[in-house]
From TrEMBL:
Organism per entry: Marinitenerispora sediminis
Protein's UniProt name: ABC transporter ATP-binding protein
Entry keyword Nucleotide-binding: yes
Entry's Gene Ontology molecular function annotations: ATP binding; ATP hydrolysis activity
PANTHER family attached to this UniProt entry: ABC TRANSPORTER, ATP-BINDING PROTEIN
Boundaries of every ABC transporter domain copy: 3-234
Family: Belongs to the ABC transporter superfamily.
Amino acid sequence: MDVTITDLTKTFGGQPALDAVNLAFGGGMLGLLGPNGAGKTTLMRLLTGVLRPTSGRVVVGGHDLAERSGRTAVKRMLGYLPQHLELYPDLTAREFLDYIGLLKGMADRRVRRARAAELLEEVGMSAAAGRRLGGLSGGMRRRVGIAQALMGDPRLIVVDEPTAGLDPEERMRFRSLLAGLGERRTVLLSTHILDDVAQTCPDVAVLAAGRVVYHGPTSGLTGAAEGRTYQVDTAGPQPAGDLTIANAVAIAGGMRYRVVAETAPPDGLPVAPVLEDGYAAVMRDARGRRR
Ligand SMILES: Nc1ncnc2c1ncn2[C@@H]1O[C@H](COP(=O)(O)OP(=O)(O)OP(=O)(O)O)[C@@H](O)[C@H]1O
């Protein structure tokens, strides 16, 4: 399912949340990264037709979202798991999926029920299908969230921070679930967790202040910090000056920082970058451009 976003701008009260964004992707998983307020949720809401753009175009699978017929067609082929999905606490997982199927235009009750059962199986929730949603754990709710996004067998799936707040084991399970979906569908995964992207997304787009500052292979994002990543171990204050701190961990007797800088900081040991260094590097470059 090809998605083409052209010169997409969305302003709120005159302030651009998205500023002339161009992005084309299709097939497999695309990670969407960016700091708070970068415009990720706005982009996803425009893509799902929940919001209308101020200007620019979104075409999904050949359907233009500017047209009513396009929006209707896209709704049928799209699954959306928003950051905060409203679940009805008194419905069981099975009843909830049945209801969502009805909303998505699946008129045949038997087909709906069969699909709900299939999806609950796929997300590992068959045993809890009859439990009320209000009594489920955070991870189980997320799984029901993914299942509802998959009712109607969408070819494009948009998920907003699906692993936030999950414990490490649930997160791992959820990641492999998403990666499995990406084998057969187009999945846009927005997250703050770089590890989720490193583990599941061959490609990634990075938004900063409403603009795309990187789009390409995830390995290429790591490469953005090549030759300018340093490790600084110190018992004193954190490294300062013209550098960006990508990571800080406590070590015996002090702290270990990874920094991105054009020139080596005092006591800086050059190291091979990892994804979070690459992310810090493109954010650093983006800030430099905005100055
Ligand atoms: N409905 C709205 N009304 C006014 N401003 C909005 C609205 N939605 C988003 N914004 C603003 O647009 C900008 C982008 O917000 P958005 O939620 O898209 O960012 P985000 O990258 O998803 O952030 P986060 O990672 O915190 O979820 C922010 O400055 C936000 O305050």
